[in-house]
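Protocol step 4 of 6: record predicted structures for both targets in the notebook before any analysis. Target 1:
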Amino acid sequence: MILVALGVKLFVAKNAEKAEFIRHETLVNEAMECLGAADWKCAENAVRGLLCDAPHDTNLQLHLAGILFEQERYEDCIRLIDSLGYADGDFGFLKKKSAQLIREIDELGVERSMHFRVEFEGNPSKSDVMEALAVLEVAYDSLCNLFDFRPENKMSLVLYRSREYQGMGPRPDWVAAIFDGKLRIPVEMMHYREIYRPVLFHELTHSFVRAMTRAKVALWINEGIAQVVDGSRTQNPRPAGAPPSLNSLIEPFVKEPSADVAERLYWYSQKMVERMLARNPDFVHFREFIQSLRTMETDEALLKFYGVKTAQLLDEVK
């Protein structure tokens, strides 16, 4: 009888240990997925859950500080770092950057946006910042209605002058405004209304598609959707040169050093999305396709919603 009781206790203990391991691994995977998709609210919940298990884990503490920063909760970020007693390295950078952004926003006299977290470099004027936010707010409302989707998190806007603020890695000369998880807009562009309005709309569309798919979207689909939505290149003629390969359509276009090749990548992406919509122009169907990319591979979703694969779309456009 005693042996049976001991066996039951061991069985229960092992099950509890297994359940705890599964819970922890689930939190780790959730945190990684949310961080990769820049879903800061989701990431904060997962990281705080992990910190309950390991409250002194410096890496988790740093991730939490960074998450607070990305949510524009600069005061919370500073308080967290002060409570931990860190002053150097990445913690020191986040504290200094948070204090700097609080000061710069106050000096410019700009109220914090409900939908955008703004960083700037090179002393942009208040009018430049306000104009960018005004255009983006209009575009934000339009895209919310178009996609029937409202992002959970603020979107990051970087107004820059120096090339170092263009984001990670070197950029070819043809690159100006880009979206790499953040909307990066050169301040000088704000002086040319006919240029910056469609550009801001285009880049914000990328941000919406990324949020809708949790960053699980092929480059050609994201670029094609953004061009169809902003409509600025619809009448562009077929560019000269060989059609792109399938691989080149899923790699970041901003890594392409040749402006001519980049032009072909953008043109073919738009035409491939247009071919999709020619099969079924219903936009509710299109929204469901975009959202399905969260859980389905590209060709799997294309077959389900449009009865076609990527290679066939490319062949039809060639």
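Target 2:
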Amino acid sequence: MSDLKIIISKKNYEVFGLNANPFPYSGIPDQVPNIYVGQPEVMGKVSAVLSSVFSTGHSNHLILTGSYGNGKSHTLKFIQAQVQNKFFEGSAIKPVAGYVAQPGESFLDIYRDFIYDLGSAYLKSCSQEYIGTVCEEISENGTIEEDIQPGMGWRAIEKGKVLLSDIVPQAYVRLSELTRYPDFSRAFLNLSYEENAYTSWEWLSGESIEYSRRRELHLTSNITAHHAQRAFMALKTALEAIGHSPMIMLIDEFECIETLQARTKQNMLNALRHLIDINPTGLSMIIACAPEVWEPLVAEYHAFSDRIAKEANLKPLDKNSVVHLITEYLNTCRPNPSDSLEPFTEECVQRIFVEGNGNARRIITICGQAIDEALSKEMEGVDLGVLERMSGI
């Protein structure tokens, strides 16, 4: 009889000069990637598109193509991380970058994923920032007696110098005039009330809220597929009002729309086309799609594909890029980073390059398995013999 054995003690990789196995077993991208190797043309095109949006304010969009495992998801998450790192808290420019794992069946699914990625904490801080801005404005025009210094509106409310209940009604009127969506304005502002924050977040993220709970916040209806674009526009408008712009939407696995029924697929493409049309400024969509799906879309749906200004193609990694990739991962677990490929031998890396066929995901997976195989056999390095003992290599 065989028993399932689960070992919970950590493996010791010190024999390889590492404090852990640096290669993820599944080859999927980190939530916040720090390593990006071998796609200078792609990054050049992405940089050009985003630079034009930042410098001119005009919307610009890009399609990112590449075969399975060549790094589409990794690239989108790297773009998001880079944007967030370059424009940190306190920066004069405050872009909003949200990642959408896949398009789903309607624009409501895209909206939900985008909102979830931004997170409730971020939207709550934006709600407070907007209310603080209104507080400063009505202090300046004399509507309230308290003298509020620029940038100190929300702080004045927190300290009790101004009552939140005195500011929110005026903030609601102003925001509703901008968004033209009263329900959205109510929910957005109610994020600043602790007792209403959870229900407001549920509503804003497109969840279905029963009438009794909506009535407490004076919300007339839920965000449905019919309202999703309107909600997205209200979100974009509200964030622009406090200087959070441009909005960067990163949509992954766009090839999934190929599984939709013809009418549903057409509705999805029409929704995205319409979104582009009504946002001539302040928006950049970067969409990742398998080439075998994107090419027919270009041929069949001109009304959508013609609105995507540029295309960037992720190519398999060459030998030098593979060496760089392996070294970068090794350095994440080395006490002292170096250019060495150890514990891998040169011959082993050449074999990994050939077997991986330049596919980043496959290469990372092989490397992770090879290090564990060498460790289990108590070897001092990873050579060709290790790869030959691994099944499938």
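Step 5 preliminary note on target 2. The chain has three domains: 23-29+317-391, 40-95+245-313, 121-227. The first strand starts at residue 62 and ends at 66.
Proceed to step 6 after PI sign-off.
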